[in-house]
Please model this.
Amino acid sequence: MKNSLLKLSAIILVLFIFTGNAQAQKRGSAKTPKYVFLFIGDGMSQAHISLTEAYLSTQDGVIGNQQFSFTKFPITGLVSTFSANSYITCSSAAGTAIATGTKTNNGMLGIDPQGNNLSSFTYKLKEKGYKIGIMSSVSIDHATPGAFFASSKSRSSYYDIAIQLPKSGFDFFGGGGFVNPDGEDKMQPNIFSLIEKGGYKVAKGVDEMKKVNSKDKVVLVQKDGKGSDLPYAIDREADDLTLKEIVSSAIKHLYNDKGFFIMAEGGKIDWAAHSNDGKTAILEVLDLADAVNVAYQFYLEHPDETLILVTADHDTGGISAGSQKGYVLNLKALDEQKRSMTVDKENQDKYEEMNEKAFVGWTTYSHTGVAVPIYAIGAGSNNFSGRMDNTEISRRIFKSLKLEF
Ligand SMILES: [Zn+2]
Model:
């Protein structure tokens, strides 16, 4: 009797603590943030996320959906992704919709379908005194990061996008590098010299980043010879730059009393899904989660002043947890894969077979038109529940900041 009374009071105490926490979180969610993080998993639909949760449970030898990092956030919503001229968007049209609140045609970046320049909301935030950081695990001139600082008739005009970086006046850029640093014809002024002429410091690797003065505007990229995008997490070597390190450097560099806005893209979930490479895609989702965890640590230190959003621009691959016939998912079949399909091309057939044995399904090598999730925590997060269009994300961020869009 005494024992069961003790048990009962312990249960009541635990319940009390949990509801107390939930209430505190709810109260906090209505506050005005100073520090805003927008993470975009390129190509990451809820299917990629569910599959990643199943992968984590499989590692533990159980059936389940083991939540991780941002999938534990208290607020969730659903975002429609269609572009102005197609049900199925590309990254530049989706990035433009998120960054400017206006839909455009596939292939266009930061311009409307009629060709008029649009302005990313980051410029408005800069005017209001927020420090701005734009970063990605792919090149800085790629569609998603590009949408937050540039306008171009074509997302493929990488050099045209890159040269708009120093003109932005934003405080921090990070990523693999640039696709065409000397122009599409390799005859143009080198992008790094233009960036330095524009008053920026260039840091190649985290060691150089540590030497940058906190007052300087900075572009953090990989060391020379590493290419323009970061390697896949599955292919990573010890001294490779990571998105987590970039986000961590950005927070240190941008932290100030007036606030900051950080957009960080996990750009290669999309690339792995274009290759229908299940394991590589799952590890890219977890790699984005590692970067989100750095922001989450910051949130724990500034819970009433921080808003973290994690969303996607569209689905890639039409990936599914389950395929062919039967109610089976066997992710253990992916255990032996140690390299991405792109790097280990010789064994591509073997990896395709592994995906089949794992019952990881794919419907396309391109994008699909399904809605993507948005996860939110912190001050202002209550504005991100329910259904929304991708053009509303920016408006809801401004509503959270109590600013006119
Ligand atoms: Zn894509």
About this structure: The chain has a mean pLDDT of 94.
